[in-house]
Specification:
alpha+beta
Amino acid sequence: MAARSRPEGTEPEPAAVRTKEYAAGTGWDIGQTAPDDAYRTLDAAGSGEPTGPVVHAHPGGYARQIVAKGGLITEGVKRDLDAAENTKD
């Protein structure tokens, strides 16, 4: 087998190593996966606005699911979760 030669004055190209992707982890921060379902009850007066705290099982009646267990926490999901924390029951 013949040895391969490189033209003089050229450097070998660095090996391209693909970065390994890891799961973001579980939690309620942006980029993580939701550890549980998150729902909020909708206003019974007919406005359709979410009311009350975040619950992790369907509260019955009309409710909106914010995120499903294992779903990605996006900026919008985080905004909805934070809005629920800032409401008074």
